[in-house]
Amino acid sequence: MISSLPKWIESGAFVLAFVAGFINAVGLISLDGQALSHLSGSVTLLGASFLDASLQDNLKLAGVILSFLLGAILSGILLHSHTLKLGHHYGFALVVEAVLILVAIYLFSIGSYYGCYAASTACGVQNALATKYSGAIVRTTHMTGIFTDLGILFGSALRGEPFDKRKLVLFLLIIAGFIFGGSVGTYLFQVYGFNALYIPAGMCLILAFVYTLYSKRHHLITAERI
Questions:
Q1: Non-local CB neighbours of 89 within 8 Å, separated by 6+ positions
Q2: Long-range Cβ contact pairs of 209-216 (< 8 A, separation 24 or more)
Q3: Which end of the chain has fewer CB atoms < 10 Å from its terminal CB, N or C?
């Protein structure tokens, strides 16, 4: 339930959605429409490509899909708890995401398509991280689930159920973050090319640093009270 999540979840979700929207925009405008932060389009393209695409194109699409899966597996290894608990390696997972984005920048800079795989792995890490710590309430790398939950929220309210204002705010912040990230990512890619990805990488590192400091401070305060 969203009521059990800490107050800072909204801010973190906005930042992570911004990062995902940024990365996805770079992929869409620079790699022939290749989505990196979600898989629905890639899986559909893979199915369609069996009819007329080359084996190389099929392998590229499969690589992006498997890379996202690998990122989710990494988060599953790093994060042991199914509930949000300070200190459960969330900061380290964000550092891993940042490193993967930096690897993607390097690979793109030398003209390697493997940069897509690194970026998709980073998105897989992030989506699994957000999904696991929120009990699947927060998903930051794709909007289908968010709009679905938003529709359910309004439909339930029309049926007479209590309206969850906090959930509404959270969903709107995620949508706004993803759109804003896409806008900024598009603009900065046009100016700086793939070096624009230093922005989401830096944001992940800053978020990891802030989270780690917050976690340590929280544990110190808890220890003093005891």
A1: 78, 79, 80
A2: 209/91, 211/12, 211/90, 211/91, 211/94, 212/91, 214/8, 214/86, 215/86, 215/87, 215/91
A3: C
Residue 3 lies in a domain: no
Please check whether residue 2 lies inside any domain of the structure. Answer: no
Quick check: is 1 in a domain?
Answer: no
Domain of 43 in residue numbering reads as 8-225
Which CATH number goes with the domain that contains 90?
1.20.1250
- The Cα 2–Cα 20 span in angstroms is 22
pLDDT tens, 148-164?
888 998 998 898 888 88
Read off the pLDDT of residues 19-46 as tens digits, 9 standing for 90 and up. 999 999 998 888 767 778 777 777 777 7
- What are the counts of helices (DSSP H) followed by strands (DSSP E) for the chain? 8, 0
Structure tokens at 155: 């439909």
* DSSP codes of every residue in 117-137: HHHHHHHHHHHHHHHHHHTTS
Are the beta carbons of 191 and 102 closer than 8 angstroms?
Answer: no
- Please report where in the chains the tokens 């009819």 appear, as a residue: 51
